[in-house]
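Q: What would this chain look like folded?
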Amino acid sequence: MIKAKKSLGQNFLIDQNIINKILLVSDIKNKSVLEVGPGTGNLTSHIIKKNPKKFFVIEKDENLVLKLSNDFKSEIKIINDDVLNVNEKNIDDDKLVVFGNLPYNISTEILCKWILNLDKNNFWFSCLILMFQKEVADRIISNFNTSKYGRLSILSNWKLDIEKICDVKPSSFSPKPRVDSSLLFFKPKINFFKIENPKNLEIITRVFFSQRRKMLKKPFNQLFNGNIDIIKKLNINLNLRPQNLDFETYYKLTKEYENLT
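A: My prediction, written as structure tokens:
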């Protein structure tokens, strides 16, 4: 029997009702699929039954790789590596439907990597169906003027429409995590604000939210040297706090930053 490794943030999904909900989110028949962190293969076996065109999995744990290889043989192509080391654009020429019960200790890092590495107009996936710790999911889907709104919300909502599918109780996993989880569905936006380099959006949000309880004046001056023209152009009140600016304003600030550099 394979035991979950705490060091890898493993919590295996065992709830058949949740597995069924996951599979209803997107039709995968004759589509290319990627599963991140398949674990013992509980979801994997049901994805295979839906007859995908091609099926890739990324699994770091060598013991699990052996099990998956024995259980599914040629039905899946296994990438034995850390997902953070994988260049997802090179997995396949087809756009992928991505499933992931992401390790909670690196889930935000995975999502941010995928977003920041997106090509300007070409997505390597058709959709993402991902499980997060509920607290992280709440940050991803939060809107401005709320306490959970921040860098993760702004990055996630830049190029993606996001829908919460359901919350998931600890009893749906083995071993049981100490927190609730949430299943989110991400789909590429047709129209999104054009930014030359996504890393600049990361810089803008990092500086502004480094002191989220402070007024906007200090981070703005740090980045724009008190440029009054930008303040007027974007109609920004520097007495507000970072959480009071909407998504679009942060994207426009990033564009102004790019114009200066």
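The first strand starts at residue 12 and ends at 13.
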